[in-house]
């Protein structure tokens, strides 16, 4: 039997085509015996790696504001080296905070929310709550007021932990919050605004260090949770309406952690991980859980200070990556694309020999990666790495060996860029908040693009036929269908939303829990999964924005020039496009008034000035209905012939048939993205 990829397996529940990781026969639940929860795992890791560096934060040397030519002010930071705390020191801080939280008056039966950008104290607060069996609600620092109020009130949060700069946002909504009693803020380097603290005085207000001091002086015995206790209620960003809170158990976190440890090669205490993605997102929380388990050093940064050329880094000073020199990073495709675009722009700016040399070396290495040029390995590879790619790798510290990518589809161009220019393996992961990121993970030596690997060892993945969409497990050459994830990483459901929970979570006759993702996938012969579609008409674009195609179509249908419309979004791009059946009367009237000559309606629809007029009109309607930029079609194809039930492109009720339209106008859609 193969020891890589995935193999078919018999499972319970709804009929489908199920696969497990080829390396295991039984699903992995824990990294080692005696570690059923993150609280146990954290304590054991801190004992095992007690003298190793654990959490690192850069010192602020100087903060200044620069005024641009248009009068806008931008903050620029001069940051120093990383200051490190060992596993032993971090464990002491976590224990102190856990005790201080209770001494401050937090009831263990109520929830704590963390509302902050990623930083060492975020992680310490999380582990401190786990140590006293307290459930943590995670909230994005960028969340709007309504969603923030909804999240805090729905979960009846009694203690809110946030960074000082976000206290202003809290002040604006304080009258709408029904359960908050305590506020703990992370100190920063700015002056404390006493007036702001005074305005929040109806709550118990304390700084993070004050809570730690309180716990150090009055220690409380830990109360470790069990595997089925809810560790985190994680609010998803929400594709429609208000965000949903996913209930994640300690067992879910530990299972994903145990599984990922087995698939990243040579993972261990000598690794250094750069943490800068939001800890309120499942991807980053899962990654940092893995790092603490293997004794890795975690250095904190931010997306705005990541590289020497990042927007908040003072010119002439160093970004996080070049100071930390990480061996491991996680990234979403949008960030990889940003790094790639920055490198290519620098190459173009240099021009001449340097530009030609880069493109020649890149092409030689690309041919080798794709397996058709052995000459670009070995000594030749060493030569190109030394002459061309070494300087590029310095942008992320020069030691990067593995990059984990998730959150959205990664283009083949970006995958090859990381392989070649950064000299790093890139692992693509597929997972959801509802599966604590644990679904599938690509093999380290799989250079094929577009695949997200076999199931993680903690999960089964099953495809279930979706007749309506034409995706069947009997399809040749590969079975296709809706992706359903089962196993130890599948979460407990949505907080206070039983109806939605019952809709997408199922328990089979063997007691295994399954989550119906709504994504469409296909299994390659080696058991590796590829995501090919989305069951509902909600598409996540390249930068992570969701576009609800139906909502956009409904809004744009009010445009005078539109008789019918189908919006299409390719997840490898950051914009959508549309097929528009033109309104004959409106367009002919415009042509007459504008003096546009044409033989027939078909010719009128093909004229560039006609397309421009309709696109401008659509954009105007879109803005009037408050669609955001990513929802407004960037390009359109005008069609002269109406869609009728007889053509099979719309139903008898004249609702569009998306799959049939995509098939018929496949070439036109490809041209719109060309």
TrEMBL record:
InterPro entries: AMP-binding_CS, AMP-dep_synth/lig_dom, ANL_N_sf. It comes from the Eukaryota. One of its GO terms (cellular component) is endoplasmic reticulum. GO terms for molecular function: long-chain fatty acid-CoA ligase activity. Pfam families: AMP-binding (PF00501). Residues 77-495 form the AMP-dependent synthetase/ligase domain. Transmembrane segments: none annotated. This is AMP-dependent synthetase/ligase domain-containing protein. It comes from Psophocarpus tetragonolobus (Winged bean).
């Amino acid at each position: 039997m193969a020891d890589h990829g995935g193999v078919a397996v018999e499972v319970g529940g709804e009929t489908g085509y199920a696969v497990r990781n080829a390396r295991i026969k039984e699903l992995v639940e824990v990294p080692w015996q005696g570690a059923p929860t993150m609280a146990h795992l954290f304590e054991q890791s801190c004992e095992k790696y007690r003298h190793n560096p654990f959490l690192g934060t850069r010192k602020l040397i100087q903060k200044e504001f620069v005024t641009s030519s248009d009068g806008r002010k931008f903050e620029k930071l001069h940051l120093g080296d990383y200051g490190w705390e060992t596993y032993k020191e971090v464990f002491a801080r976590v224990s102190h905070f856990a005790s201080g939280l209770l001494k401050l008056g937090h009831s263990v039966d109520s929830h704590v929310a963390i509302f902050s950008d990623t930083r060492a104290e975020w992680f310490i607060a999380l582990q401190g709550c786990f140590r006293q069996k307290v459930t943590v609600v995670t909230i994005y620092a960028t969340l709007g007021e309504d969603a923030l109020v909804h999240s805090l009130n729905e979960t009846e949060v009694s203690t809110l932990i946030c960074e000082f700069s976000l206290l202003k946002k809290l002040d604006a909504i304080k009258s709408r919050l029904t359960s908050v009693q305590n506020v703990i803020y992370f100190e920063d380097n700015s002056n404390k605004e006493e007036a702001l603290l005074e305005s929040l005085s109806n709550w118990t207000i304390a700084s993070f260090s004050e809570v730690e001091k309180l716990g150090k002086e009055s220690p409380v015995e830990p109360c470790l949770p069990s595997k089925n206790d809810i560790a985190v209620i994680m609010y998803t960003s929400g594709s429609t309406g208000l965000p949903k809170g996913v209930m994640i158990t300690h067992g879910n976190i530990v299972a994903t952690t145990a599984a990922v440890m087995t698939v990243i090669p040579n993972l261990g205490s000598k690794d250094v991980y750069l943490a800068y993605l939001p800890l309120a997102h499942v991807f980053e929380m899962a990654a940092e859980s893995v790092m603490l388990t293997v004794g890795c050093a975690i250095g904190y940064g931010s997306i705005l200070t990541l590289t020497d050329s990042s927007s908040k880094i003072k010119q002439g000073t160093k970004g996080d990556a070049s100071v930390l020199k990480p061996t491991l990073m996680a990234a979403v495709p949008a960030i990889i694309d940003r790094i790639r675009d920055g490198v290519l722009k620098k190459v173009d700016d240099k021009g001449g020999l340097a530009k030609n040399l880069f493109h020649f070396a890149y092409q030689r290495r690309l041919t080798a990666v794709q397996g058709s040029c052995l000459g670009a390995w070995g000594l030749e590879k060493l030569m190109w790495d030394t002459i061309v790619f070494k300087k590029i790798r310095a942008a992320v510290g020069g030691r990067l060996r593995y990059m984990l990518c998730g959150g959205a589809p990664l283009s083949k161009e970006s995958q090859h860029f990381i392989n070649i220019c950064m000299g790093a393996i890139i692992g693509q992961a597929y997972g959801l908040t509802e599966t604590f990121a644990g679904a599938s993970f690509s093999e380290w030596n799989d250079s094929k693009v577009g695949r997200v690997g076999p199931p993680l060892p903690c999960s089964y993945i099953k495809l279930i036929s979706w007749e309506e969409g034409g995706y069947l497990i009997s399809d040749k050459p590969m079975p296709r269908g809706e992706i359903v994830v089962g196993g130890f990483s599948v979460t407990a459901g949505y907080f206070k939303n039983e109806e939605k929970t019952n809709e997408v979570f199922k328990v089979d006759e063997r007691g295994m829990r399954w989550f119906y993702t709504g994504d469409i996938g296909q299994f390659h012969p080696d058991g590796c999964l590829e995501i090919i579609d989305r069951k509902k008409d909600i598409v996540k674009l390249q930068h992570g924005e969701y576009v609800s195609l139906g909502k956009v179509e409904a809004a744009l249908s009010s445009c005078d020039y539109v008789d019918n419309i189908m919006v299409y979004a390719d997840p490898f791009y950051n914009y959508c496009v549309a097929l528009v059946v033109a309104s004959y009367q409106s367009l002919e009237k415009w042509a007459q008034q504008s003096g546009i000559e044409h033989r027939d309606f078909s010719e009128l629809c093909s004229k560039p000035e006609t397309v421009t007029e309709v696109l401008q009109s659509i954009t105007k309607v879109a803005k009037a209905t408050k669609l955001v930029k990513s929802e407004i079609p960037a390009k359109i194809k005008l069609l002269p012939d109406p869609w009728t039930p007889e053509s099979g492109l719309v139903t008898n009720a004249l609702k569009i048939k998306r799959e049939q339209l995509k098939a018929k106008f496949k070439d036109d859609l490809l041209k719109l993205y060309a």
